[in-house]
């Protein structure tokens, strides 16, 4: 046991003798003590920090040429080459302040944008015609978005519990008085305008800018197409109808004509109806649009003249309802042609 303790004391004394003590004081350019400075040997685990008076003390078993790193926030880092041979070292380290220069900062005052389209849902014409169940109807495609309410017997835009009259529809910045076609009771209506007439639609179910101040629930802004690049014809084939659009371009003007036919007979043959229809509702519609570019963009006086007109609209539906509470079991037959509504009673 005595031999073991003797060997342990000899090894401990040898280890203490082999260590090198590094101490010193760290100050700045004004000879003021710098506390909290990190001092450590590069590539080793030996290190310490300076106290409130800038003093530090470090013992290390490393030998030979070593690099002492001195780092402090706001000061330039230093690397000192030291020769460690067991002799104590006393250092006076002077730290230089580092001045960081920021790049130029541009401050711009906030402003309200009159037309805030970044917070809206943007739909292209292809998105509308490819939406399942929309059948090429702009409002039907928008009713699939969050925040809208679907009213099966209406077809107009109902947003967040509001009435359809609270949703304002704009075309090229002008509010549309009536954007929907006429229909009979309990039959959803369709938008009067084809999605192919517009280059994009901006629909907001939340906040909107002061540009649309007459709206209450939401806004639907439609922007018509500018001058087309070439002549083209488009054919649309749907399960409930067909359509064709022809565009002619010459110089700075363009003429577009379209015709569509819809028939609900295929749908009614698959889905049972609550009403007894003599004939499935069907409709024809056609429209024409003219676009004329005028002025010179270089001089700052340029623009577009755009005109859209429904040329012909025809709808036909025969609705027969049994009135069990009426005398003699009369039958009410209603008929709508070209927007005129007639009714009569028969035996």
TrEMBL record:
Positions in coiled-coil regions: none
Stretch forming the signal peptide: 1-18
Domain TonB-dependent receptor plug as annotated: residue spans: 135-214
Keywords (A to Z) from UniProt: Receptor, Signal
Protein name: TonB-dependent receptor
Source species of the chain: Dyadobacter fanqingshengii
